[in-house]
Amino acid sequence: MRSHVPSYELVVARDLPHALSMLTEGFRPIAGGTDVMVLFEAGKLAHKKWMSIRGLPELRTIDVTPDHITFGALTTYTDVRRSAIIAAEFPLMIEAAALTGGIATQNRGTIGGNIVNASPAADTPPALLVYDAEVELTSPRGSRWVPYTQFHKGYKVMDLASDELLTRIRLPRKFASWTHFYRKVGTRRAQAISKVCFAGVRRGDQMRVALGSVGPAPIFLENSDISAISPIDDVRSTARYRMQVAKNLMEEFLHASA
Amino acid sequence: MQLSVNGIERSIEAPPMSRLLDVLREGLHLTGVKEGCGEGECGACSVLIDGELANSCLVPILQVEGASITTIEGVAHGEKLHTVQQAFLDHGGAQCGICTPGMILAAIALLEQHSNPTLEHIKEGLAGNLCRCTGYMRIFEAVVQAVRP
Hints:
- The complex is a heterodimer of chains A (258) and B (149).
- By secondary structure, chain A is α+β, with helices and mostly antiparallel strands.
- Helices cover 28% and strands 27% of the residues of chain A.
- Chain A folds into 3 domains: 48 residues; 116 residues, Uridine Diphospho-n-acetylenolpyruvylglucosamine Reductase, domain 3 (2-Layer Sandwich); 78 residues, Enolase-like, domain 1 (2-Layer Sandwich), CATH 3.30.390.
- The radius of gyration of chain A is 18 Å and the shape is globular.
- Chain B is α+β, with helices and mostly antiparallel strands and 149 residues long.
- The model of chain B has no long low-confidence stretch (mean pLDDT 96).
């Protein structure tokens, strides 16, 4: 059943303060639209008041300081793929961006959108988790930085208040010399949603591992303990298959990074 | 609102959440833009927005105010087909035709990025466009031939 188009409000946010004030009036953000518009077309978009934040240039920058790379929430997958510094220091971000949808999706979809859409099967969150990302949440009350490992609280539940907008993401520049490993397992190589998505980085005894599609949200593995995951059966795969693939990928990662 | 479609300035009246796809097909009768899945998986509705490939089924019309849209109707120069169109014609890159407009636009966008693409570039550039007839090989050949006539 398609949505009744005229019953939806959509306005353009002029700048960040305008966007934040509209958030408090009940408007929700739409950026690249690659998730929101799917629900809209399917008649499953319950919320009716939307604001387009796509044109806010202050949220589409990539800033480099000695300690961090900080990018705006509206940075697209294509922007990530074209960034030489991300390729040099955070190659799993490049792999994840390249494996998310096709070129058309990568041109419009944003990293901030991928995070707050909070799909357990999203492909960039495992990379962001192993790189120890922090996310900036901004509201009229001010801004706060939250470790990304603490951001997802359950299925589509986030540490994000209704008046907060995810504005920036920053990665500490400490992983360049680590071994980086990323695998997405889906039905086919292109255009498939993950059955299991695995990201890992390692330097000697230090190891960081995160997975997608094996729990209610993207999961960072404390102590890199693969037995801590509890995948489920769903339309894309079974719990048993996912568990086995996750273990296999863990083993492959340990071999590849040894 | 105003936007440019295939080089012509257009004034559109539509609810802001209307899909670009519907405005192009129903408002402007540009029926070369096809609807396949309606969820960004198949690429049949591909258009270029300011030169970038996009799925028009996922774009609310308000987001393209002032933008420049290219559909399959806008790629030929008068009677002369675009080199990619001609290559699809010459090499059997189209069968039923539903995916063809999107394929051609995706190929044109690819060639803007890689003027001399490898087969891997071509496969990746067209990965968001599904074809259920050709098995893709003739499509890939057509794109190769478009740059190496």
